[in-house]
Design brief:
The structure is a single chain. With 238 residues, the protein is α/β, with parallel strands linked by helices. It has one domain: Rossmann fold. The protein contains 8 helices and 7 strands, in the order H-H-H-E-H-E-H-E-H-E-H-E-H-E-E. A 7-stranded mixed β-sheet has the order 3-2-1-4-5-7-6, sandwiched between helices. Helix 2 runs antiparallel to helix 5. It is globular and about 50 Å long. The N and C termini lie far apart (49 Å). The chain binds S-adenosylmethionine. S-adenosylmethionine binds next to helix 4 and strand 2. S-adenosylmethionine (SAM) binds next to helix 4 and strand 2. InterPro entries: Cation-dep_OMT, SAM-dependent_MTases_sf, SAM_O-MeTrfase. Pfam families: Methyltransf_3. This is Caffeoyl-CoA O-methyltransferase. It comes from Triticum urartu (Red wild einkorn).
Length: 238
């Protein structure tokens, strides 16, 4: 029996449930180039950073449901979520993709080109907060409120900073998704849980603060979707 864990940082209690989900709805409908990129990414020493295919199938459906055509992504790695997004956007759609490292993106770029969607990608190398600020000041601020969807999956300690900027960039009615907001379930466990590193504890603390702030933020309607490592989905309401 294949091991499915590496394909999703899932919080599901039993591997067989994830296996069922992947085999039933994810892999049979996964785009050939996404599969290729997933297999390339699995060879990378930091493959754990890649977004989960079950979560990305969810995003693909969501993007099409809301009719997204302009999106932003912070945290690209080898590009599995980026390719998912580019494939889900209509012909004239565009995704601004930000990552501090171009090196990871270069691994996935040939596959994105082969998929025929590279023209939809506007890749920007740099720090997430700094690049979002640049977009906000582009064209005299004309890009504010023009994005339909944003996905934040970069520096976990910067999510509050991403939130403030993404709320200005995404239109009212648009969606913002934050990855890893359950942080391995640690947000609901004691801080000194055996086996957790100092970094885990810092990220857990910052997610406790971030999740509480989003829950109380009247500019969004939000929910935590317990898929993969937890995704907070916000709909901008003002
Ligand atoms: C979890 S991975 C992203 C995974 C990606 N969404 C996917 O589908 O595979 C996080 C990425 O964030 C990038 N990153 C880390 N700190 C960053 C920062 N301060 N600004 C921008 N990108 C950052 C890393 O280089 C890494 O590629």
């Amino acid at each position: 029996m294949a091991t499915y864990r590496p394909d999703s940082n899932t919080l599901l209690a039993d591997d067989s449930i994830l296996e069922y989900v992947l085999e039933t709805t994810v892999y049979p409908r996964e785009h050939e180039r996404l599969r290729e990129l997933r297999l390339i990414t699995q060879q990378h020493p930091k493959s754990f950073m890649g977004s989960s295919p079950d979560q990305m199938q969810f995003f693909s459906v969501l993007l099409k449901m809301i009719g997204a055509s302009n999106t932003i992504e912070v945290g690209v790695f080898t590009g599995y979520s980026l390719l998912t997004t580019a494939l889900a956007l209509p012909a004239g759609g565009k995704v601004v993709a930000i990552d501090a490292s171009r090196e990871y993106y270069e691994l996935g770029r040939p596959v994105i080109e082969k998929a025929g969607v590279a023209h939809k990608v506007d890749f920007r190398e740099g720090d997430g907060v700094a690049e979002l600020d640049k977009i906000l000041s582009e064209d005299g601020g004309a890009r504010a409120g023009t994005f339909d969807f944003a996905y934040a999956d970069a520096d976990k300690l910067q999510y509050a900073g991403y939130h403030e900027r993404l709320l200005r960039l995404v239109r009212v009615g648009g969606a913002i998704a934050y990855d890893n907001t359950l942080w391995g379930g640690s947000v609901a466990m004691p801080r000194d849980k055996p086996g957790s590193s100092e970094y885990d504890r810092r990220v857990r603390d910052s997610f406790l603060e971030f999740n509480a702030a989003v829950a109380a933020d009247d500019r969004v309607e939000a929910c935590i979707v317990p898929i993969a490592d937890g995704v907070t989905l916000c709909r901008r309401v003002k």
